[in-house]
Fold this sequence. Notes:
By secondary structure, the protein is α+β, with helices and mostly antiparallel strands. It contains 9 helices and 8 strands. Strand 6 (about 170-175) and strand 7 (about 180-185) form a beta hairpin. Helix 4 packs parallel to helix 6.
Amino acid sequence: MLFDHLYDKLVRHVFQFLGARELARAREVCSRWNALAGGEHLWKKLCVADWAALETDQELWQLIDRAISLDDANCWRNMYPKIENIPKWTCCLQKTRSFVCNLVAHQVSGTPVGDVGLPKVLVVERRFSIVHLQTFALHDAAVLYFEPESEADRHGFDEFIEYLSQRARAGLALEAERRFVLFPPCDYGRIQLGYHGRSLLGFVQYAYPPPRV
């Protein structure tokens, strides 16, 4: 085969253009390809392309799977199967008709949000004390992890977290029978969800049982 005569560096260069399925198949070809296609830099690239915060938020790893640590030799390769099917959505975050930033929301636990997804625009019009999160959240609420859609959204994202943190408040957005709660780092996130990071979390749940069809 032509690839048998290529230097490892060139093969790695070609492999960086492959997706996860192609890399998995390449690993089955021979022991050499197994080692090259299993390179952590390749799987890190795939993970970060899908979920950028994995590169900067170590606490996020514990939220996804406590059995995987950044200290593990094959951490990125082990993480990718955990996140490839996690649903995510993009939306615009507003605060009483004032643009905040564009968000990417990843569901990490709870009842699946389903095909309905998230609204294109989340308007936070109400706020309440974060001490009430424990009683406000339903046990099967869909838990979301938010990150800015791009670096251009980072400033507005960080300012919104700071805005909620300084006031010890959670934000509430409503859409028909659903309610979306966004909250900054707090005891609820640390104790109930096991997340000790600095990002924005949230949950979505029905405000009352949906009508029967």
